[in-house]
Specification:
The chain is mainly alpha-helical. The chain has helices spanning about 5-40, 70-80, 90-105, 135-140, 145-155, 160-190, 195-205, 220-225, 235-250, 265, 275-300, 310-315, 325-350, 360-390, 390-425, and strands at about 115-120, 120-125, 210-215, 215. The protein folds into two domains: about 85-380, no CATH class; about 390-425.
Length: about 425
């Protein structure tokens, strides 16, 4: 039996989990507080550093408060853990783990970089290079709602219970839009392997920035001769990006969609009865889900680990088209930089956009995004089929059918809304 693949897989699991994801989670909390402090003209955490006074020095080294996440973790570990007597204890203890674990499992299918050649072995910078990456992410990530729902129910208290029910309804609303929004993307790529999707973008331009392909940049004639319907597809792909990103916000319970833990209505929501490390696990799950969501957005829409603009082939490939031995490490840095950029975007939105009312949340999911994502599939299908069916059929058959579908969906939505208003009155 060849033990080398098992050892390499074990190293990758350890590296991506304990060296990449866990530090990102810790310092996402630090970035959250520093960014919101800047936006609110405050200082933020700036004291926790190296306690040199314990070693006899006169002053501690604050180091911009960069050790604040370590202090938070130690506080969570050593703080007294209370389990209220009225809770359903087995489910109460199980819920935090069910919230955090799915986010860590989804990391295994995300490619962090291209291949690296180490000691004669070609190592892929992905834990599990499976052929259905996006479907695996959706299937596993959606399981976290069970942890939140169980937390609300097992707390045996009305406010946590309301938070758990809200989370369940919210997940159902946006999971449908999330799945539908990705279909045009998969139609363009024609594949489900995330590594192949990133490789395709490195050669033919990022999905939302198709400024180059293997024949050159937009400034060369060969590019326009081989670009196909890339620019027309920016319309459905842009809609997919908006629906997908907004649905990720709702999936991760981030502002303006944090109704399950709305402190102005539900005290603390589903985790009201939790304390100590069990309480911290919920936030670990939330930040891990935010990091995974950012990584998936970067992978699908912005080239993943690709440098882009033709730099991958120019700088990191040999004359035979193989990756240089250090290319994977550079790609890893590029991927992490893009992901951190989206994490900052998540934080910026949280401290900028006010929380929605619950009826507005449901309307956005069921009335706006569901219909928009569904109609967007037909737009992408028509654009992809246009070169094959010809301009006449596209213009005189495809476009009228598309407009008729839009009208039917609009009138169905308006009729349902009018009936709903009549029932309320």
């Amino acid at each position: 039996m060849d033990w080398v693949p098992l050892i390499i897989t074990g190293i990758k699991v350890f590296f991506f989990t304990f060296v990449v994801i866990l530090p990102l989670i810790a310092y996402s909390t630090y970035a959250e507080r520093r960014v919101c402090a800047i936006m609110q003209d405050r200082v933020g955490p700036n004291r926790v550093g190296i306690p040199l006074t314990l070693l006899g020095f006169k002053k501690d080294l604050s180091f911009f408060g960069l050790l604040q996440p370590l202090a938070d973790g130690l506080k969570g570990l050593f703080k007294q853990d209370l389990t209220p007597g009225h809770v359903r204890k087995s489910f109460y203890w199980m819920a935090p783990a069910l919230t955090a674990i799915p986010a860590f499992i989804t990391v295994c299918v995300i490619p962090f970089g291209s291949n690296v050649n180490l000691f004669g072995h070609d190592v892929k910078l992905v834990i599990a290079d499976i052929g259905a990456g996006p479907l695996f992410v959706f299937a596993i990530a959606s399981l976290s709602v069970y942890g939140i729902t169980l937390a609300g129910w097992s707390s045996n208290s009305k406010y946590p219970f309301f938070g758990g029910v809200r989370s369940c309804a919210q997940m159902i609303s946006y999971e449908i839009s999330l799945g539908l929004s990705i279909i045009p993307v998969l139609m363009v790529f024609g594949k489900l392997n995330l590594t192949d999707i990133v490789t395709h973008q490195s050669e033919k331009g990022w999905l939302l920035l198709p400024l180059w392909n293997e024949h050159g940049s937009i400034f060369s004639g060969d590019y326009w001769a081989h670009c196909g319907p890339q620019w027309l597809l920016l319309l459905p792909l842009g809609i997919s990006f908006i629906v997908f990103t907004t649905s990720i916000f709702a999936e991760t319970n981030r502002m303006p969609f944090d109704l399950p833990e709305c402190e102005t209505e539900l005290v603390g929501g589903y985790h009201t009865e939790y304390s100590s490390m069990k309480f911290a696990l919920f936030f670990m799950g939330e930040y891990a889900a935010m990091i995974v969501g950012s990584a998936v957005i970067v992978t699908i829409f912005f080239g993943g680990w690709s440098l882009g603009f033709g730099l991958d082939s120019a700088l990191l490939q040999t004359g035979e088209g193989a990756w240089k031995w250090f290319a994977g490490f550079i790609h890893l840095g590029v991927f992490l930089a893009k992901t951190i950029g989206f994490i900052i975007f998540f934080i910026w939105v949280r401290w900028t956009v006010p929380r929605l009312r619950y009826d507005q949340l449901m309307k956005l999911g069921w009335v706006v995004f569901f219909e928009l994502a569904l109609f967007n599939i037909f737009i992408a299908a028509l654009i992809i089929a246009a070169p094959h069916i010809g301009p006449l059929l596209t213009l005189f058959v495809g476009v009228p059918i598309l407009l008729a579908l839009a009208a039917i969906m609009y009138f169905i939505t308006k009729s349902v809304e009018s009936k709903h208003k009549v029932n309320i009155t």
